[in-house]
Amino acid sequence: MKMKTIYLVRHGQTLFNVQKKIQGFCDSPLTELGVAQAKIAGTYFKEAGIDLEEAHVSTSERAIDTLQLITELPFKTHKNLREWNFGTYEGEGEHLNPPLPYLDFFVQFGGESQEELSNRINKSITNIATESENNAILIVSHGAAIANFYRKWEDFSDVKRTSPIKNCSIMIYDYDGDVFRLREIINHDFSSLEN
């Protein structure tokens, strides 16, 4: 199998991000800043000369809107690319979150365990990458979901994450049919938008 490149992108800033609310499976719209962030991510691909061939996205509106601002490619939606299911904590303030790692904390509130999230996001991305006949694949997902995918493959990569996964950051993975290796993390400078 020839090497494939996976461009794993977190959605743009949302209303709940600004309000510091837990999103998970529930949704909130992109803010004006979130829209601008997604457009900047789209510009990155154009300026870097990256010809995306295929696009996949979580079923959440915030992720779909982000993808459509990045590329005009047709796309497939996947429920298993959604954010962590936080159960009845969704829509509540982030101050209610327990300390990391969350592990099984949200199961008692009707959510999923960290292991369940890790397994489903990894299986979904692996299936997309394995079944695709293309080499440059865009996947738009969510912060905690992407963080758990990162954690699964961290030991195989020389590139390490040194900060939280920011809105519209791009994690570039090489996939050889066996292992995902993180090649680069693109964190855009949005400071000019935040004034």
Automatic annotation (TrEMBL):
Q: Which domain of life is it from?
A: Bacteria
The family database entries (Gene3D superfamilies) matched by this protein are listed as: Phosphoglycerate mutase-like
User: Which InterPro entries does this one have?
Assistant: His_Pase_superF_clade-1 (IPR013078), His_PPase_superfam (IPR029033), PG/BPGM_mutase_AS (IPR001345), PGM_Phosphatase (IPR050275)
Check the record and name the CDD domains matching this protein: HP_PGM_like
The record's Pfam families line, in alphabetical order, gives: His_Phos_1
- Name of the protein: Histidine phosphatase family protein
Q: Which organism is it from?
A: Candidatus Vagococcus giribetii
Organism phylogeny: Bacteria, Bacillati, Bacillota, Bacilli, Lactobacillales
